[in-house]
Amino acid sequence: MTAQPSAAGADPVPTGRDQREIDPDDVLLSVRGLQVHFPIRRGILVERQVGAVKAVDGVDLAVPRGSTVGLVGESGCGKTTFGRAVLRLVEPTGGTVTFDGTDLRELDAEQMRRQRRQMQMVFQDPMASLDPRQSVESVLTEPLRAHDIGGDHRARVRELLDVVGLPASAASRYPHEFSGGQRQRVGIARAIALEPQLIVADEPVSALDVSIQAQVVNLLEQLQDRLGLTYLVIAHDLAVVRHIADVVAVMYLGGLVEQAPSDELYATPLHPYTRALMSAVPIPDPDVEESRERILLTGDLPSPAAPPSGCRFHTRCPFRQETRCDDERPALREIRPGHTVACHWAEDIEAGRIAPRESAVVEPDVSTA
Ligand SMILES: Nc1ncnc2c1ncn2[C@@H]1O[C@H](COP(=O)(O)OP(=O)(O)OP(=O)(O)O)[C@@H](O)[C@H]1O
Predict the structure, then answer these.
(1) Global confidence as pTM
(2) How many angstroms is it from 80 CA to the middle of ligand 1?
(3) Which segments carry the region annotation Disordered (predicted)?
(4) Residue-number span of the structural domain to which 325 is assigned
(5) Which residue, judged by its Cα, is nearest atom 10 of ligand 1?
(6) Where are any strands of DSSP class E within the chain?
(7) Ligand 1 atom, smallest distance to 303 CA
(8) ipTM score of the complex?
(9) Which atom of ligand 1 is nearest to the CA of 74?
(10) How many whole angstroms from 157 Cα to the centroid of ligand 1?
(11) 255 occurs within a structural domain
(12) Block means of pLDDT (10 residues each) for the chain, length 369 residues?
């Protein structure tokens, strides 16, 4: 696995997946203090802003060139808004997004349009993101035309189809004629048509059958190796992210709560929220599955329009300590090289000095009963 990008001066390290060498200091995408606040307006004759949905509220994230960073969290935590704000498909209300040295928020609309050639998106639902009246050929030549790419477009379409594992005959067919997995291959072909550097993939496999998911994940990995792509993969499914990501960032209610190299995060989750998320993921080994202690995640995600004071997770946290957690928002701290966590008590929890509330723990014998 790669070292986490902020690990200053770290040497390039091979990743666990395929021995790619990634320099954690060669950051392609750097996000600092990113904010997306959606105004809440009221009023019949005169609309006034009465509040804001703080969908993304001060996120820092660095994505090294050639790496895959996974962004995980439950539905509504702000993952999609973050991904879209990185590409300025939704306008950030604060912070900076620097891509390959360019401050994207400084660009005007035309400059941003040209910049998007380097940054593409793969969506969750390939059907919704493909126009049903457009043939695959038309879908794939559209970005080439929009960016005035010359050359033989038909040949380029055949090449793109081949790269994503579809036959040349797919060019004349329409989205509804394909299976979900094939449609996602078309979506991926469209995303790589302009040879981008970065792909933001928002739940790229969660709409697909489990048997097809692995094929699409493998395709994404092959394309990364072949084309030197950098990925930001957004997913609620920790198993998918674990497989594909070098570094995983965990998001809760608009902010990051933990970030670490993938193997480390899965072996030693430090934030109570991450621990609860991990508890929900089944472990394939039945002996381990039966004997592990689970931390339950109770209650709903609070509203991002009125987030809790102090630590945003304190209302659901089984390790909450009064009153510091209620009053003081914890900063992300580097606890081990490349492993940052936003919890006042991470070391105490890890060392077992603070135990979870009993009601939040499912003991092994209970979970297997
Ligand atoms: N255009 C918008 N206007 C107002 N609120 C919005 C808008 N888009 C998203 N939100 C709110 O921002 C919060 C974060 O939404 P977002 O879709 O980014 O979360 P998510 O983690 O990607 O969830 P999901 O996986 O369900 O898409 C939610 O409360 C959502 O209702």
Answers:
(1) 0.90
(2) 7
(3) 1-22
(4) 13-100+197-367
(5) 55
(6) 13-14, 21-22, 27-42, 48-64, 68-72, 94-99, 102-103, 119-122, 198-202, 230-235, 247-252, 255-261, 294-295, 333-336, 339-341, 361-362
(7) 29
(8) 0.96
(9) 21
(10) 34
(11) yes
(12) 37 50 92 97 86 96 97 94 97 97 96 95 82 92 94 96 97 93 94 97 92 93 96 91 93 97 93 90 69 76 95 94 95 95 96 83 52
